[in-house]
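Hi support team,

I've been running sequence recovery on a batch of backbones for a student project. Most finish fine, but this one hangs at about 90% for roughly twenty minutes before it completes. I'm not sure whether the input is malformed or the queue is just slow. I've pasted the structure tokens below so you can try to reproduce it. Let me know if you need the job ID as well.

Thanks,
M.K.
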């Protein structure tokens, strides 16, 4: 799987940047648990397998076969300050020379973060095809109830065993498939940033992420006539390819746009109660919300109006306005959006030297987006929720408008949603 991707490392002829890949090996298929046990033994290092109560049944036989230690994080461990602190104080983790993340998304983020803190490598052993973060170099943490992305360390290898992840509850695979479908708007937002701000797009990484999305979308379309294990394998392959694209890029730009910002906002519980919904389930619903907004925007006779091109950062980032939603988290939100000064606010980069050309390019990118109904059908075929009420959120217009208005500020990343919402604020609060 990795040979072709290794060819993308080094100085990139497409974007001129240096792309690095820390993950040297990636395996998806049958018998990968046995393969991993042998691989760990060969290393001869002191290994600590990190599991939680749900994934312990997979960690235990691996530990016995590989002669490794196991630590169990309690319950449904979140990637937050409490869990990372607990792990960093566990003697077998402190003594380990190599860690194994045996679990799904949050557990991987916890291990990614703590292994980097300790300066030891880790191996990914995913127990569900639920998110694309397994091999990424970015840890999605919840720090004092704020969602933050930390540059961290990717696994040195990933072993995804059919017998493990394909046996996970179907809801987890559905969530992973929905996370992948979120790449439609993530990739679109990257393109929109290129058109509207001149942000560079690496066409090779863009193509890799698009391929990961297509592999998944295609598998979802054929799901009814596909063997369930093969279907889960395709989703897992898509997720791993997506994670590798993030790793090559050095940040989550190819895989995370405004649909993810909605999910992050909802996970901050500032405008809604705590959710039981999974990451990908939220991304899927966020994706439909964003496609609705983008569809409406695309129907305008003129996209790049004067108002659109002249957002007022002072109004957009007005503390009083942000405080109504972010409350005590407002300082953190302001810091995120103005790293090293107000001029670094992503919206300040909005610049179109040739308005007609940008209008054409943006329209072309918008028309390449799938329709909302096509994506809804894909989410349904994947078994993922499509209604906002199905993930425990209010189904009224006001909530949708509030979500769209404030989600873009959870990250200082340019998205079309951010520009559309800022346009509404031109000329007053
Ligand atoms: Zn490149
Ligand atoms: Zn995601």
């Amino acid at each position: 799987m990795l040979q072709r991707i290794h060819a993308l490392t080094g100085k990139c002829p497409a974007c001129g940047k240096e792309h690095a890949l820390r993950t040297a090996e990636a395996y998806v298929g049958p018998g990968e648990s046995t393969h991993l046990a042998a691989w760990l033994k060969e290393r001869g290092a002191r290994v600590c397998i990190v599991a939680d109560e749900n994934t312990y049944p997979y960690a235990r036989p691996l530990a016995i076969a590989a002669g490794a230690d196991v630590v169990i994080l309690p319950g449904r461990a979140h990637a937050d300050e409490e869990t990372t602190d607990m792990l960093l104080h566990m003697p077998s983790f402190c003594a380990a020379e190599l860690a194994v993340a045996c679990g799904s998304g949050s557990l991987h983020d916890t291990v990614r973060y703590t292994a980097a803190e300790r300066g030891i490598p880790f191996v990914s052993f995913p127990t569900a095809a639920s998110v694309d973060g397994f091999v990424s170099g970015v840890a999605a943490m919840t720090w004092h109830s704020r969602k933050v992305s930390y540059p961290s360390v990717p696994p040195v290898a990933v072993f995804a065993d059919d017998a493990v992840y394909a046996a996970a509850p179907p809801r987890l695979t559905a969530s992973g498939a929905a996370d992948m479908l979120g790449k439609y708007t993530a990739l679109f937002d990257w393109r929109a940033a290129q058109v509207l701000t001149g942000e560079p797009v690496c066409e090779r990484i863009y193509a890799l992420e698009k391929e990961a999305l297509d592999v998944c979308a295609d598998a979802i379309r054929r799901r009814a006539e596909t063997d369930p294990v093969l279907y889960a394998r395709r989703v897992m392959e898509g997720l791993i390819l997506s994670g590798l694209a993030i790793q090559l890029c050095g940040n989550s730009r190819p895989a995370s746009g405004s649909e993810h910002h909605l999910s992050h906002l909802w996970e901050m519980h500032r405008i809604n109660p705590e959710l039981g919904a999974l990451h990908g389930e939220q991304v899927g619903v966020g994706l439909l919300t964003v496609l609705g907004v983008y569809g409406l925007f695309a129907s305008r006779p003129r996209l790049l109006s004067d108002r659109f091109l002249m957002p007022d950062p002072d109004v957009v980032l007005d503390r009083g306005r942000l405080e109504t939603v972010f409350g005590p988290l407002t300082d953190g939100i302001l810091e995120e959006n103005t790293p090293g000064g107000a001029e670094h606010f992503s919206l300040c980069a909005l610049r179109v030297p040739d308005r007609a050309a940008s209008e054409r390019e943006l329209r072309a990118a918008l028309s390449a987006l799938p329709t909302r109904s096509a994506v809804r059908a894909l989410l349904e075929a994947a078994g993922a929720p499509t209604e906002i009420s199905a993930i425990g959120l209010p189904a009224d217009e006001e909530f949708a408008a509030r979500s769209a208005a404030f989600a873009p500020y959870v990250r200082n990343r340019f998205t079309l949603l951010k520009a559309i919402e800022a346009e509404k604020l031109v000329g007053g609060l």
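--
Follow-up from support: It reproduced on our side and the slowdown came from queue contention, not your input. The first helix runs from residue 3 to 6. No action needed from you.
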